[in-house]
Known about the structure:
Blueprint: E1 2-5, E2 8-11, H1 17-21, H2 25-38, E3 48-53, H3 56-63, E4 73-76, E5 80-84, H4 89-92, H5 100-115, H6 122-133, H7 153-171, H8 173-186, H9 193-204, H10 208-212
Parallel strand pairs: 2-3, 3-5
Antiparallel strand pairs: 1-2, 4-5
Helix pairs in contact: 2-5, 5-6, 6-7, 7-8, 8-9
Amino acid sequence: MIKKVGRFLIKYEECDEEFIDNFPLSYLEEQYQRIKLFFNYPNELSTIRINFHYSKEDFEFFYGSKHENWISAFTSHKTTIHLFSPAVIEDVTIHDSNSIIPSIVHEMSHLFYGYSKLQNIELFNEGIATYFQKKECNTKINFLIKSLKSNDQKFIYNVGHLIIYNLVNLFGEELTGDKLIQFIKAYDKSYDDNKLLSLFKEKVGIDVNELVKE
Length: 214
């Protein structure tokens, strides 16, 4: 079954009809506009396709690699968001159906990041998306951030979220977006860790460790 709901085109099966009937369009539209303003993106995204999956095999076919149970959603070509459906999400992931709408918000952030043609710095791509997904940030750290290049997924999601959350508390969403985009555009993978930390302070206006300290 396929249904158009506002700017979303949703592919689903009959078992999820009640979920679709109660789809929170006004809330998602509000989040869409917040994210658009954060990225200062001048255009509207094309229709956002939401493709619900009903098995790990189907999810993996589009995902392109083996599924891990903490993953419930991802984006792909042509503004498409792939998610496990409300009917099966608890059986195949560590999440439940209450996580689906926040996950859509998270993935919309990735769409805007990608369409803004920003280089993919995972710490900030995931940090921004997690900020929009979650209302609060409970992460606390007791160590110095020595690198912005981490490949550790827990660090990327949790510390990335903490950085964005604290920046927004300091500067507000719109100015945080402006400052971060300046930094991301100036980011060079060839820079060593110290140079990137100095670049962050120069472009964003605060030392990253000063930002996250308790």
